[in-house]
Amino acid sequence: MKIPLRTLFLLPAACLWSMIGAMAASPTPEGMTVTSEGIVNGVIAPPYGKHGTHFLKGMPDYSFPLAIHNAPKGTQTFALFLEDRDAIPVARFSWIHWVAANLTGPTLEENASANPKGRFVQGVNSWASPLLGAGKLTDAEASRYGGMAPPDKAHVYDLHVYALDTKLPLKDGFFANDLFRAMEGHILAEYKLSGSYSASR
After folding, report:
1. What's the total number of domains in the chain?
2. Confidence at residue 134, expressed as pLDDT on a 0 to 100 scale
3. What is the pLDDT of residues 95-115, one digit of tens each?
């Protein structure tokens, strides 16, 4: 809304401030956001980590649901990257819990990682790290959601969701660096959803 400068000086003060307020309150396009029924008030619910009941060789593997809202125009697929930077003092690296690409829909139901049904591909998480020795999972076993298992205290986990303008040339078992290289020049929007998970019940 454009108002001639001369007109502004002729308006009563109350009317002027009312018009300026209306201009400031004009609706603007909302950016992309991500929500999850499994993350409430910044806390990740117990079933999605070591306090849950679903495990694969000791790795919690029951993924939380999520919903992507207001994806930008031109979005073709979504990618996910879930990490625990609070693991750095313990493991000496940021722990990758889930990496997925080529999601074509804006929602994932609970435990979708266990049966993607061709809707997306999943990369290798840190449960396959050689640093875990004999207890590590194979790359194939770890190409899925690996839930929260903080050993020392509550950790904060960051889920990065990317809206992309293309389908990525990735197959199950890719590594996170492959994802980030493939996404270069194709990211339309990014959103970070964070939640904490306790080391003890």
Report:
1. 1
2. 80
3. 999 999 999 999 999 999 999
Task: Write the burial class of residue 65 (CB in 10 Å: 0-12 exposed, 13-18 middle, 19+ buried).
Answer: middle
- Residue 2 in any domain: the answer is no
**Count of Cβ atoms closer than 10 Å to residue 15 Cβ:** 11
Query: Which residues, 6 or more positions from 6, have their beta carbon under 8 angstroms from its beta carbon?
Result: none
Average pLDDT, the chain: 88
Closest CA to 127 of 136, 114, 140: 136
Share of the chain above pLDDT 90, in %: 82
Note whether 117 and 140 are within 8 A (CB): no
Instruction: State which residues form the domain around 153.
Output: 29-197
Alpha-carbon gap, residue 87 to 150, rounded angstroms: 8
pLDDT at 2: 40
Q: In what order do the strands lie in the sheet with 39-40?
A: 39-40, 43-44, 187-197, 155-164, 77-84, 95-103, 121-122
Question: Is 34 exposed, middle or buried, given 0-12, 13-18 or 19+ CB atoms closer than 10 A?
Answer: buried
Q: Which residues on neighbouring strands pair with residue 40, listed in sequence order?
A: 43
Distance CA(168)–CA(14), nearest Å, equals 55
Q: CATH number for the domain including 97?
A: 3.90.280.10
Residue ranges in the chain modelled with pLDDT below 70: 1-29
